[in-house]
């Protein structure tokens, strides 16, 4: 049950001063709280004996008030320390979790659903934070504070009465062990279901246009209702076990009160304790009600925190498929790119997605990659991003194997515009500045002009400050592509990769963008995959892919002379352009 505290040992060691001060003051408060009941008992005994005076009464009242003020200020300090630690570990875990996700490769996100990752980053981290805050309070109160109160009852009042009153306590321990295991198992299932629900919400929101287009609103509502019912059932399973805690403890506390009252009156009549002792004892008995409840809360919190930490660790302990080399080879500039007999297969694939691919580029050259859909164009370009474990063959940049180059260094050379553009829920300006932080409006306009987006900018309600919505929902497909291209242009990368990034623009706009690429990127390397051959006519080398194999290669004129797939596709597109 307490394994979660052991697993969080790194945090407690880091914040040992905070927790040392907080826990010591918490224990001090527990000891000080024993004094007012004892003072009240002494006052009652003096009243019964008739020896009370106004001076002694004021002394008792003054001492009790002083104790309460001291307890108030010390309580403020320990609460600030303990619950401040809860907020701190939540911040640390969330930052570590997010930083870890940033290091993960695409295969990780293919196996893990976004909704489940969100559940771990929110609910699970919050449950762990509760463990190091409220959990530490219940741990101390259910052990140290309970022991202090029991010792006070035994030494200051009567051991006989104390032993009789605590007879029901073992029943709580037995019940808590049983309830704790049940909560751990059921809470894990409930959190998994919550992740499923998050994932469904994300899919429905991002796909709302498709849902409406196919009139699937009612079906989607039914699907979501089924998922929420599953979440409800699993959370109710947790609540049913959780609901046993309080009645069990109340039952045991009630037994303690009955025993204390019955046996205490007997001891008063036998003159073994005074009436003041009995009053003090009942106040102490009332004080152990919370520690007994804290036992149930402790087990509940620790089991939830343990289950959540297991889910978090499951994610953060996953190592990326591609890790940085221990001693990277320093490379100043990507002066050349070479692929030699590269064969690659995705982790989820049963066939080779690239087979025996070879080509070389010098700095400043342009590579065109063409072929029918599914031929491996995107797969070929992604080899330079080194997001998957290397397959067979060699990929070299500046004559250095790509796996020997630091990932940050490698990615710093790349400007990547994927097939599916990803825009953030910010303004056009901020999306473009993602490629160059704090870029001036002058640089932004240069990038926009290079991407042939300047005319569209005037149609937007707030120009550069127009919010594009989630994933750029307020922009057309062509506009999203050109904002993404602007983002790549403003970064001015050494290697620009355009992965079918011009598919949503018309031929005239494409021609302007290609012309700007040739002019703006003179002396820098560019790789373009496309279905429209006019986008790569200027390329120094064009490769034609089919089922992961290069079936044709050469310049535009050389490929036309081969009278193969490239010539056939070029003629077909020329006819289509003439018809338009």
Task: Describe, in plain words, how this protein is organized in 3D.
This protein has 580 residues and is α/β, with parallel strands linked by helices. It has three domains: 314 residues, ABC transporter type 1, transmembrane domain (ABC transporter transmembrane region fold, Up-down Bundle); 172 residues, P-loop containing nucleotide triphosphate hydrolases (Rossmann fold, 3-Layer(aba) Sandwich), CATH 3.40.50.300; 73 residues, Rossmann fold, CATH 3.40.50. Helix content is 63%, strand content 10%. It contains 24 helices and ten strands. The strands form two sheets. Strands 6-7-8-3-9-10 form a six-stranded mixed beta sheet. It has a four-stranded antiparallel beta sheet with strand order 2-1-4-5, with no helix packed on it. α5 runs antiparallel to α7, α7 packs antiparallel against α10 and α10 packs antiparallel against α13. The chain is elongated and about 120 Å long. It starts with a helix and ends with a helix. The model has no long low-confidence stretch (mean pLDDT 85).
Ends: how far apart? 72 Å
- Sketch the major β-sheet: 6 strands, mixed
- Helical stretch count? 24
Strand content: 5-15%
Mind telling me the CATH superfamily name of the largest domain?
Answer: ABC transporter type 1, transmembrane domain
Instruction: Please name the CATH topology of the largest domain.
Output: ABC transporter transmembrane region fold
> Which stretches of 5+ consecutive residues score pLDDT under 50?
none
Domain unit count: 3
Side by side, the strands of the main sheet go 6-7-8-3-9-10
Mean pLDDT: 85
Helical coverage, percent range: 55-70%
Q: Which CATH architecture of the largest domain?
A: Up-down Bundle
Please report the total strand number as a whole number: 10
How big is the Rg? 35 Å
Shape: elongated
Class of the largest domain in CATH?
Answer: Mainly Alpha
């Amino acid at each position: 049950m307490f394994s979660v505290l052991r697993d969080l040992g790194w945090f407690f060691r880091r914040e040992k001063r905070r927790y040392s001060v907080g826990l010591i003051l918490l224990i001090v408060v527990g000891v000080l709280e024993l004094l007012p009941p004892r003072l009240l008992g002494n006052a009652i005994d003096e009243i019964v004996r008739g020896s009370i005076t106004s001076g002694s009464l004021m002394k008792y009242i003054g001492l009790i008030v002083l104790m309460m003020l001291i307890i108030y200020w010390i309580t403020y300090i320990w609460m600030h320390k303990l619950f401040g630690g809860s907020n701190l570990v939540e911040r640390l875990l969330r930052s570590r979790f997010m930083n870890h996700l940033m290091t993960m490769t695409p295969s990780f996100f293919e196996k893990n659903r976004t909704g489940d990752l969100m559940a771990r980053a929110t609910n699970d981290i919050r449950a762990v934070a509760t463990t190091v805050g409220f959990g530490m309070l219940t741990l101390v109160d259910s052990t140290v504070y309970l022991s202090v109160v029991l010792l006070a009852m035994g030494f200051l009042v009567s051991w006989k009465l104390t032993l009789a009153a605590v007879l029901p306590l073992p029943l709580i321990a037995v019940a808590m062990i049983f309830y704790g295991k049940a909560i751990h198992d059921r809470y894990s299932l409930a959190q998994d279901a919550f992740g499923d629900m998050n994932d469904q919400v994300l899919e429905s929101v991002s796909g709302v246009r498709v849902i409406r287009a196919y009139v699937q609103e009612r079906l989607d509502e039914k699907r979501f209702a089924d998922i929420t019912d599953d979440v409800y059932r699993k959370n109710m399973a947790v609540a049913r076990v959780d609901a046993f805690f309080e009645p069990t403890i109340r039952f045991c506390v009630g037994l303690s009160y009955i025993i204390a009252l019955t046996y205490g009156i007997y001891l008063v009549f036998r003159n073994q304790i005074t009436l003041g002792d009995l009053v003090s004892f009942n106040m102490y008995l009332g004080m152990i009600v919370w520690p007994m409840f804290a036992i149930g809360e402790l087990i509940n919190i620790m089991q939830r925190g343990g289950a959540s930490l297991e889910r978090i660790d499951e994610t953060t302990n996953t190592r990326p498929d591609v890790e940085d080399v221990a001693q990277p080879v320093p490379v100043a500039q990507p002066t050349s790119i070479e692929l030699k007999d590269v064969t690659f297969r995705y982790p989820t694939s049963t066939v080779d997605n690239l087979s025996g691919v070879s080509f070389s580029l010098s700095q400043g050259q342009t590579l065109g990659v063409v072929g029918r859909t599914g031929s491996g164009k995107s797969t070929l370009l992604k080899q330079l991003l080194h997001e998957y474990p290397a397959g067979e063959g060699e990929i070299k940049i500046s004559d250095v194997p790509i796996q020997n180059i630091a990932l940050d260094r490698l990615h710093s050379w790349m400007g990547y515009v994927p097939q599916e553009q990803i825009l953030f829920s910010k303004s056009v300006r901020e999306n473009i500045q993602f490629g160059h932080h704090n870029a001036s409006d002058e640089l932004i306009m240069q990038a926009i002009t290079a991407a042939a987006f300047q005319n569209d900018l005037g149609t937007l309600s707030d120009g550069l400050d127009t919010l594009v919505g989630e994933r750029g929902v307020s922009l057309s497909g062509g506009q999203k592509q050109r904002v993404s291209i602007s983002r790549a242009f403003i970064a001015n990368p050494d290697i620009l990769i355009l992965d079918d990034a011009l598919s949503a623009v018309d031929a005239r706009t494409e021609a302007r963008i290609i012309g700007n690429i040739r002019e703006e990127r003179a002396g820098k390397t560019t790789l373009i995959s496309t279905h429209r051959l006019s986008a790569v006519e200027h390329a120094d080398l064009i490769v034609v892919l089919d089922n992961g194999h290069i079936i044709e290669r050469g310049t535009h004129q050389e490929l036309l002379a081969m009278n193969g797939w490239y010539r056939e596709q070029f003629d077909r597109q020329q006819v289509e352009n003439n018809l338009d």
